[in-house]
């Protein structure tokens, strides 16, 4: 009986298990090539530090990608939030005030991303392009205003940059995300919008409302991510946040997130993807790989992980 | 069946990735983790390591007395002649100096990336790190302090840190100093180019820099250039006077096409902002290669083919720094790791080095035929691994800091000839 149950369970969940294959593959390869350095206490700590911001952002982004949308303004938003958080904290001496300011701003941006796109009948990516341009310009203006390449925070953020605080943050955001995703209408409807937006609308669901909520939650995650990024580096500049939109997308894909969203979307994709993405860079350095080969190897690993994690019957990519 | 295919894909992908690593891994020397490396140093197992394994790839035999060290090199770029030359140089000196080098690439705009890369080097067992970008330096220095890893700079003046976080960076015992990308005083380079422009007989000059908030000293180069031109204009006949256009800033993007329509009379451009990548391609696209270009950065491609009297003769001046300047931070790191310092070592500072300023066909010929920068041939290096050992106080009691600084001032074109 147990054997049959085990077989059935494996049959049902084999796809899910394989979606962890990318992470497992990276762990096995780099454990061997780094001669165990991957698992040193210091390395595990820096992996958590490096993955923290990606994981927090990716968990928020899951709600957006579940709807089949994406937000390319995340990098520029992060940059501006980090700079503003530092400037406000330095000016007032209150980190709480700095964080609340960027949290408020992120909520407004979430509202714009979600509501304006519906009101104007625009794809959400268009409003995110608009926000990306706005925030990119603001970031440049802020740095030119302070007339320096980088601004440093004068507040002691030692606790927030500790591994303990980062683990707590990942766990808290994960618990909230899983709770919202699995046990509330927000998760159910964002997946439904990704699966078939028209059908969801026709079944009486207020698509606009849930889109806005999804973007607002993502905004909260961006603000929290910006806080931890500021704590980690202690400074921010004109280029802070650059590339994060692509990094998040790659992390989610590495975690097996379908680009078209829908019912197969999972929060675990964000955590698996964030750690896979970070371990990839870390492992290559630990293994002593020549920098000339890094991009090629990253591309091969990316391709391998996508092949392993694809879950669409007739397709190659998880779309 | 579907899952069987996936398992096969997993196996094949694993083989693909493992195969791609073939030949890319460690040198074969088991360096161990950071702790292991430090333990070895502490227990003295490596002392008198002439009979120890030679670090990979060294062109010179290891000196009998040298200690083995693992040094991280975090460079701001991962491609180009400069990188090829730097890697060839490090490989060349590794045998004589006992240093194994681990390379990684930094970001020029993202603090978090740089911190992560430095953490990765520390985790890879590097005891000392040489860094070429001043971005996120405060957090990086704190990380190095916590990990007991020393840090030194190369091709970077750390002006940003000097101005905004001097105590955190320069006040840390783990930051040992830096050698800048060329002259520390920007005036000589600006004056050299001005003299070449005057001698060339150019009358309408365009001036280009990167933004002052990122490279504040570039404006000083232009100011020195302008001062020299003004000095010339004071005595020049009206018809011979040189006119300079207002300096513009390139925001790390290529020059706008409209620049040439706004300045139709230009016969020369002085771009302190990486002209080979940011200006020359735009000149080609606008059929303006009749304008002469003086610039920083050396690609060793179009700039060589069209320099001086060769090709379209567009390039008339190039400036870059040679990889041998890494000897400065390396000597400081080796001595610190060996527990010895120079008797005349001052407080942590940034020094300059003589750059390769190429202003004539003879200069270019010397670079092409005699420099490691162009050929990536270690035998052409101006400072060898043995020289580095001799410049370290821990290996040569007579070595002085003044001697090390002096060596940095003999890396120019004239020293190649």
Q: Quick recap of the structure?
A:
With 319 residues, chain A is mostly helical. In chain A, 75% of the residues lie in helices and 2% in strands. Chain A has a domain at 52-241.
Explained architecture:
The complex is a heterodimer of chains A (319) and B (417). Chain A is mainly alpha-helical and 319 residues long. Helix content of chain A is 75%, strand content 2%. Chain A has a domain at 52-241. The longest helix of chain A has 27 residues, at 207-233. Chain A is globular and about 60 Å long. By secondary structure, chain B is α/β, with parallel strands linked by helices. Chain B folds into two domains: 60-182 and 322-356 and 374-416, Rossmann fold (3-Layer(aba) Sandwich); 187-320, Rossmann fold. Helices cover 43% and strands 14% of the residues of chain B. Chain B has 19 helices and 13 strands. In chain B, the strands form two sheets. In chain B, strands 6, 7, 8, 9, 10, 11 and 13 form a seven-stranded mixed β-sheet that branches. In chain B, strands 2-1-3-4-5-12 form a six-stranded parallel β-sheet, sandwiched between helices. The longest helix of chain B has 20 residues, at 2-21. The termini of chain B are far apart. The relative contact order of chain B is 0.12. The model of chain B is unreliable at 16-57 (pLDDT under 50).
């Amino acid at each position: 009986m147990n054997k049959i149950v085990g077989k059935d369970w494996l049959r049902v969940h084999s796809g899910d298990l394989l979606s962890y294959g990318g992470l497992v593959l990276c762990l096995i390869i780099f454990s061997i090539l780094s001669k165990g350095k991957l698992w040193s206490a210091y390395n595990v700590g820096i992996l958590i530090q490096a993955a923290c911001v990606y994981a927090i952002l990716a968990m928020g982004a899951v709600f957006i990608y579940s709807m089949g949308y994406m937000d390319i303004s995340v990098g520029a938003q992060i940059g501006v939030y980090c700079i503003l958080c530092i400037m406000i904290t330095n000016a007032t001496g209150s980190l709480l005030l700095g964080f609340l300011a960027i949290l408020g701003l992120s909520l407004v941006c979430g509202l714009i991303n979600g509501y304006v796109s519906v009101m104007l009948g625009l794809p959400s990516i268009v409003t995110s392009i608009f926000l990306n341009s706005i925030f990119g310009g603001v970031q440049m203006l802020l740095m030119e205003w302070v007339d320096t390449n980088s601004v440093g925070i004068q507040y002691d953020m030692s606790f927030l940059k500790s591994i303990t605080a980062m683990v707590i943050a990942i766990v808290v955001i994960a618990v909230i995300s899983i709770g919202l995703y699995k046990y509330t209408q927000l998760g159910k409807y964002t997946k439904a919008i990704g699966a078939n937006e028209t059908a969801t609308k026709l079944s009486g669901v207020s698509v606009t409302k849930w889109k806005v909520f999804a973007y607002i939650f993502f905004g909260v995650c961006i603000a929290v991510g910006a806080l931890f990024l500021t704590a980690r580096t202690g400074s921010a500049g004109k280029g802070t946040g650059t590339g994060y939109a692509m990094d998040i997308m790659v992390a989610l894909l590495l975690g097996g997130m379908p680009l078209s969203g829908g019912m197969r979307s999972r929060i675990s994709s964000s955590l698996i993807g964030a750690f896979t993405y970070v371990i990839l860079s870390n492992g290559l350095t630990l293994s002593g790989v020549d920098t000339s080969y890094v991009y090629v190897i990253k591309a091969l690993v990316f391709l391998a992980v996508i092949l392993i994690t694809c879950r669409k019957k007739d397709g190659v990519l998880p779309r | 069946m579907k899952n069987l295919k996936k398992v096969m894909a997993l196996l094949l992908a694993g083989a693909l990735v493992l195969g791609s690593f073939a030949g890319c891994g460690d040198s074969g020397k088991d360096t161990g983790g950071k702790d292991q490396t430090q333990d070895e140093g502490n227990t003295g197992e490596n002392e008198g390591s002439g009979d120890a394994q030679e670090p990979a790839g060294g062109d010179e035999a290891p000196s009998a007395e040298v200690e083995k060290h693992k040094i991280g090199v975090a460079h701001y770029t991962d491609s180009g002649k400069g990188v090829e030359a730097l890697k060839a140089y490090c490989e060349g000196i590794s045998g004589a100096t006992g240093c194994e080098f681990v390379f990684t690439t930094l970001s020029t705009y993202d603090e978090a990336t740089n911190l992560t890369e430095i953490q990765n080097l520390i985790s890879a067992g590097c005891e000392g790190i040489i860094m070429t970008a001043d971005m996120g330096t405060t957090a990086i220095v704190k990380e190095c302090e916590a990990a007991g890893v020393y840090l030194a700079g190369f091709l970077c003046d750390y002006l940003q840190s000097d101005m905004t976080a001097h105590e955190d960076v320069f006040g840390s015992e783990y930051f040992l100093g830096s050698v800048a990308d060329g002259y520390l005083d920007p005036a000589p380079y600006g004056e050299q180019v001005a003299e070449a422009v005057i001698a060339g007989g150019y009358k309408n000059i365009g001036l280009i820099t990167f933004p002052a908030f990122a490279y504040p000293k570039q404006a000083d180069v232009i100011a020195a250039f302008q001062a020299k031109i003004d000095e010339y204009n004071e005595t020049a006949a009206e018809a011979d006077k040189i006119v300079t256009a207002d300096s513009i800033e390139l925001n790390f993007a290529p020059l706008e096409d409209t620049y040439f329509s706004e300045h139709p009379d230009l016969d020369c451009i002085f771009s302190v902002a990486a002209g080979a990548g940011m200006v020359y391609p735009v000149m080609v696209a606008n059929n303006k290669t009749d304008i002469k270009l003086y610039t920083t950065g050396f690609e060793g491609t179009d700039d060589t083919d069209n320099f001086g009297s060769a090709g379209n003769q567009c390039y008339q001046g190039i400036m870059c720094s040679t990889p041998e300047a890494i000897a400065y931070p390396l000597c400081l790191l080796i001595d610190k790791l060996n527990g010895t310092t120079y008797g005349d070592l001052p407080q942590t500072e940034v020094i300059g080095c003589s750059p390769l300023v190429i202003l004539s066909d003879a200069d270019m010929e010397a670079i092409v035929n005699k420099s490691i920068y162009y050929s990536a041939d270690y035998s052409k290096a101006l400072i060898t691994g043995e020289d580095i050992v001799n410049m370290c106080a821990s290996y040569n009691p007579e070595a002085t800091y003044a001697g090390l600084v002096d060596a940095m001032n003999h890396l120019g074109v004239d020293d190649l000839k």
